[in-house]
Amino acid sequence: MIKSLQKSITPLTTDAVKAFQYHQVVRFAVNLLISILLVKSSLPLSDIGVFESLLFLSGVLTMVWMIGVTQAYTSTYHKSTAEQQSTLFFFSFLLITGLVILTSLVVYLFRSKIAGLFFDSEELPYLELVLLYAVLTAPSVLIEYRFLVKNQARHLVHYTHLNFGIYLILIVWALIYHPGLETLFTALLIWASLRFLYLMTLIRFRIADSSVIRNGEYLHYVLSLFLAAFLGVGMDYVDSFLVLHYFDSGYYAVFRYGARELPLSLLLLSSLSNAIVPKLVYYDLQGADIRQRTLKLMHWLFPPAILLMFLSPYLYEWAYSAEFIPSAYIFNIYLLILTSRVLLPQSYCLARKQSRILVVSGIVELVMNFILSIWWVNIWGVYGLAGATVTAYMIQKLILIRYNQRVNYIPLKQYLHIGWYAYYTSLLVLAFGLSIMLKQ
């Protein structure tokens, strides 16, 4: 048993891609545990809904800048000299921090209008704390990406344990000491401050070689990634905005706890997609084993997804309460996104800096999601919103697959085992259909 455990742990400390995936898995596990602790605590459902809504607002302020900058950083790092790499890290820090501060100022100036959008009121509760948390936490995402591009797997694993261990301890302390929104945000600010201070120790506060960012090509690339990230994140937030518009803040928590993909699937596949980009760049698109890695993940992810189609109502009632059973059926729809997640055509586009197609496909995805959401919410309610997200995301992936085939001459079979994919997809869709019949 000890040898088996050592064998499973060793790759984490030697393979930066697996270490990065592990980091995302731990993030998910801790956030899931915290969501359960919130429901089991003495906090009323309305307060939990407000807390989740405020965290959603923080994500709106930061997510686009974080995604765009980190993608530019990882796809440019290995094509730069050592001095340029140092400059890239510092410039990425300045870019994320500056843009989040600017966005936070805009939100503060128009806080009354945004409050009406989120809470149907004239004020946003704890707005100053939320904005400060966003400014501190956004640039800290560079820490894990720095370990990734430097292939420092062991450092990343140690950082993961310390980082999320402190996070969990602080939230538990807040719930035990004085359960309330102010205490929870105080705990978040302490955690964000510690991460920010650690980031400061990794930065060289000078421009060692600015040639990599002086020319307009790099800045144009970053801006195009911002737009692509905005479109991608925008699709994720369309449903949340519509739920906040059509339903009350208490029901928002019900939607948020259901609007989750298969545990680990989003994290493992998204982190693989991002983590493999430096490898594709470094090896000039040769030697990367995306097909084998995705096949292993399919074997791990599809069977539990199929099983959860039938178990989710019981699990949600056990983990939360009977009030959250509708969340289980929202969750079942989101399980279908797995059929799109295992397709990774975007990694090749990022490695080749083909940001234009990412923008175009993102626009199509966002427009289709919005149109289908408005249409289907009037037919199936909140379940229609979830179905629109699944459909729009698949359309975007099909566009990228076609682009790779026609422009990059990279067929789908190069990065996907088509036979296994067809087998698992058929079973998952069949299980979903049966779960609908059992519900009725």
Protein architecture, described:
There is one protein chain. The protein has 440 residues and is mostly helical. The chain has two domains: 6-214, no CATH class; 239-440, no CATH class. It has 20 helices and no strands. It starts with a helix and ends with a helix. 44% of the residues are buried.
What is this structure's SSE topology?
Blueprint: H1 2-14, H2 16-40, H3 45-77, H4 82-109, H5 111-119, H6 127-137, H7 142-149, H8 153-177, H9 181-202, H10 211-214, H11 216-246, H12 249-258, H13 265-282, H14 290-319, H15 325-335, H16 338-341, H17 345-351, H18 355-380, H19 382-408, H20 418-439
Helix pairs in contact: 1-2, 2-7, 2-8, 2-13, 3-4, 3-6, 3-7, 3-11, 3-12, 3-13, 4-6, 6-9, 8-9, 11-18, 11-19, 12-15, 13-14, 13-17, 14-15, 14-20, 15-19, 17-19, 18-19
How many independent structural domains?
2
Question: Averaged pLDDT, please?
Answer: 82
Order of helices and strands: HHHHHHHHHHHHHHHHHHHH
What separation lies between the terminal Cα atoms?
A: 45 Å
User: What kind of sheet is the major sheet?
Assistant: none
Structure, briefly:
The protein is an all-alpha fold and 440 residues long. It has helices at 2-14, 16-40, 45-77, 82-109, 111-119, 127-137, 142-149, 153-177, 181-202, 211-214, 216-246, 249-258, 265-282, 290-319, 325-335, 338-341, 345-351, 355-380, 382-408, 418-439.
